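Hey,
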Amino acid sequence: MPRWSMIAPALVATVMLGSCSVPTDKHVSRERVQDQIVEEVTEQSGAAPDSVSCPGDLAASVGATLDCTLADDGQQRHVSVTVGSAEGDQVDLHIEQTIGRDTVTKQITEQISRQIGRAPQSVTCPADLGGDEGATLRCELRDSGKTYGVTVTTVNRGAVTFDIKVDEQPE
């Protein structure tokens, strides 16, 4: 059993799934989307993020999405905004924040480094970690010529935590 196979302490991050209704004229302006993200994050965490940046306006049609970036405490996270419904001049927005794969790989590397006294050779994750409770991501850790699977699981989507667990046996 590798020395780092224990469940790592959870990382606290703000990840949420929210919904809000905003007035529209066939699109929701970039500024309005950014304001809605700030409102949702502030409501969930009690503090506003440092900044939110979206590349443009969001079309007011069901299923339309816009990917934005949220910066807080020196970390950037991805925020996906999707139009859930659009009736008349009201649009229902669903906002989901994910933890970027770079942040997840960094946390795995730091945790393993603390446990074994040095960084592993490499850690890679194929995608961002979803913010919904129970969302999982399989990453890969390479060390001493062996490859181990790493499961990362979102535990709580409010003031979100995620757990890191390294497989006991190499692949």
